[in-house]
Recover the amino acids of this structure.
Protein backbone atom coordinates (compact mmCIF):
# COMPACT_ATOMS: atom_id res chain seq x y z
CA UNK A 1 0.00 0.00 0.00
CA UNK A 2 1.23 3.52 -0.81
CA UNK A 3 1.96 6.24 1.72
CA UNK A 4 -0.48 8.61 0.03
CA UNK A 5 -4.25 8.46 -0.27
CA UNK A 6 -4.54 8.59 -4.05
CA UNK A 7 -2.36 7.32 -6.89
CA UNK A 8 -3.28 8.54 -10.36
CA UNK A 9 -1.81 6.70 -13.34
CA UNK A 10 -2.32 8.40 -16.68
CA UNK A 11 -2.64 6.71 -20.07
CA UNK A 12 0.37 5.23 -21.84
CA UNK A 13 2.51 7.80 -23.61
CA UNK A 14 2.10 10.56 -21.02
CA UNK A 15 4.99 12.35 -19.32
CA UNK A 16 5.37 14.91 -16.56
CA UNK A 17 6.61 18.46 -17.04
CA UNK A 18 7.57 20.73 -14.17
CA UNK A 19 8.14 24.44 -14.67
CA UNK A 20 11.51 25.69 -13.42
CA UNK A 21 11.70 27.60 -10.14
CA UNK A 22 11.50 31.35 -10.69
CA UNK A 23 13.02 34.03 -8.53
CA UNK A 24 10.75 37.08 -8.45
CA UNK A 25 12.16 40.56 -9.04
CA UNK A 26 9.66 42.00 -6.58
CA UNK A 27 10.06 41.61 -2.79
CA UNK A 28 7.66 38.67 -2.48
CA UNK A 29 7.95 36.69 0.75
CA UNK A 30 7.42 33.30 -0.88
CA UNK A 31 6.46 32.11 -4.33
CA UNK A 32 4.13 29.18 -4.71
CA UNK A 33 5.47 25.93 -6.10
CA UNK A 34 6.24 25.78 -9.81
CA UNK A 35 3.57 24.35 -12.08
CA UNK A 36 3.45 20.62 -12.74
CA UNK A 37 1.69 19.29 -15.82
CA UNK A 38 0.90 15.91 -17.35
CA UNK A 39 1.76 16.02 -21.04
CA UNK A 40 -0.21 13.82 -23.43
CA UNK A 41 1.32 12.29 -26.56
CA UNK A 42 -0.31 14.93 -28.79
CA UNK A 43 1.40 17.73 -26.82
CA UNK A 44 -1.55 18.88 -24.68
CA UNK A 45 -0.58 19.88 -21.14
CA UNK A 46 -2.97 19.51 -18.21
CA UNK A 47 -2.06 21.37 -14.99
CA UNK A 48 -1.94 19.39 -11.74
CA UNK A 49 -2.55 20.57 -8.14
CA UNK A 50 1.16 21.05 -7.39
CA UNK A 51 0.71 21.73 -3.68
CA UNK A 52 -0.93 18.31 -3.18
CA UNK A 53 1.55 16.15 -5.13
CA UNK A 54 3.59 13.96 -2.80
CA UNK A 55 4.90 11.53 -5.45
CA UNK A 56 5.61 11.96 -9.15
CA UNK A 57 7.05 9.51 -11.66
CA UNK A 58 7.28 10.12 -15.39
CA UNK A 59 9.19 6.95 -16.26
CA UNK A 60 7.77 3.63 -17.37
CA UNK A 61 5.77 4.90 -20.32
CA UNK A 62 3.02 6.67 -18.38
CA UNK A 63 2.93 9.49 -15.86
CA UNK A 64 1.97 8.66 -12.27
CA UNK A 65 1.32 11.02 -9.37
CA UNK A 66 0.44 10.51 -5.73
CA UNK A 67 -1.77 13.09 -4.08
CA UNK A 68 -1.85 13.74 -0.36
CA UNK A 69 -1.84 16.51 2.15
CA UNK A 70 -1.31 17.40 5.78
CA UNK A 71 -4.90 16.67 6.81
CA UNK A 72 -4.45 13.02 5.80
CA UNK A 73 -1.30 12.72 7.90
CA UNK A 74 -3.04 14.11 10.97
CA UNK A 75 -6.17 11.96 10.69
CA UNK A 76 -5.55 8.36 9.58
CA UNK A 77 -9.27 7.52 9.88
CA UNK A 78 -10.04 10.23 7.28
CA UNK A 79 -7.33 8.83 5.06
CA UNK A 80 -8.95 5.37 5.17
CA UNK A 81 -12.39 6.85 4.50
CA UNK A 82 -11.19 8.92 1.51
CA UNK A 83 -9.30 5.91 0.12
CA UNK A 84 -12.41 3.71 0.39
CA UNK A 85 -14.61 6.28 -1.37
CA UNK A 86 -12.01 6.86 -4.09
CA UNK A 87 -11.69 3.11 -4.67
CA UNK A 88 -15.44 2.91 -5.28
CA UNK A 89 -15.25 5.83 -7.71
CA UNK A 90 -12.15 4.65 -9.55
CA UNK A 91 -13.50 1.13 -9.96
CA UNK A 92 -16.89 2.26 -11.25
CA UNK A 93 -17.78 0.02 -14.16
CA UNK A 94 -21.07 1.65 -15.05
CA UNK A 95 -21.45 5.40 -14.61
CA UNK A 96 -17.82 6.48 -15.10
CA UNK A 97 -16.45 7.96 -18.29
CA UNK A 98 -12.87 7.56 -19.50
CA UNK A 99 -11.15 10.36 -21.38
CA UNK A 100 -9.48 9.19 -24.58
CA UNK A 101 -6.21 10.62 -25.94
CA UNK A 102 -8.19 12.69 -28.49
CA UNK A 103 -10.18 14.39 -25.70
CA UNK A 104 -13.41 12.46 -26.26
CA UNK A 105 -15.07 10.37 -23.55
CA UNK A 106 -16.28 6.77 -23.55
CA UNK A 107 -18.68 5.52 -20.88
CA UNK A 108 -17.68 2.37 -19.03
CA UNK A 109 -20.00 -0.61 -19.34
CA UNK A 110 -20.35 -4.05 -17.81
CA UNK A 111 -21.25 -3.45 -14.16
CA UNK A 112 -24.82 -3.53 -12.93
CA UNK A 113 -24.38 -0.83 -10.27
CA UNK A 114 -22.59 2.49 -10.43
CA UNK A 115 -20.78 4.69 -7.94
CA UNK A 116 -23.87 6.51 -6.71
CA UNK A 117 -25.73 3.33 -5.81
CA UNK A 118 -22.67 1.85 -4.10
CA UNK A 119 -22.04 5.01 -2.06
CA UNK A 120 -25.71 5.21 -1.05
CA UNK A 121 -25.52 1.59 0.15
CA UNK A 122 -22.36 2.41 2.09
CA UNK A 123 -23.99 5.41 3.77
CA UNK A 124 -27.09 3.38 4.66
CA UNK A 125 -24.93 0.62 6.23
CA UNK A 126 -23.04 3.20 8.29
CA UNK A 127 -26.32 4.78 9.40
CA UNK A 128 -27.75 1.40 10.47
CA UNK A 129 -24.57 0.63 12.44
CA UNK A 130 -24.58 4.05 14.12
CA UNK A 131 -28.25 3.64 15.05
CA UNK A 132 -27.57 0.17 16.46
CA UNK A 133 -24.70 1.48 18.58
CA UNK A 134 -26.77 4.45 19.74
CA UNK A 135 -29.55 2.15 21.03
CA UNK A 136 -27.13 -0.13 22.84
CA UNK A 137 -27.19 0.10 26.61
CA UNK A 138 -23.92 1.13 28.21
CA UNK A 139 -22.29 -1.53 30.36
CA UNK A 140 -21.25 -0.57 33.89
CA UNK A 141 -17.52 -0.56 34.61
CA UNK A 142 -16.46 -3.15 37.16
CA UNK A 143 -14.74 -1.78 40.26
CA UNK A 144 -11.45 -3.48 39.40
CA UNK A 145 -11.33 -2.04 35.85
CA UNK A 146 -11.25 1.65 36.75
CA UNK A 147 -8.02 3.55 36.30
Amino acid sequence: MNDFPLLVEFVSGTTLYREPETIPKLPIVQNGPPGTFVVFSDGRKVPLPTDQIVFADGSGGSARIGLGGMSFEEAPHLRREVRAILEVQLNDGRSAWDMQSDGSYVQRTGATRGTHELLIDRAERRHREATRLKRRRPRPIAAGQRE
User: Anything to note?
Assistant: Residues 12 and 62 are 5 Å apart (CA to CA).
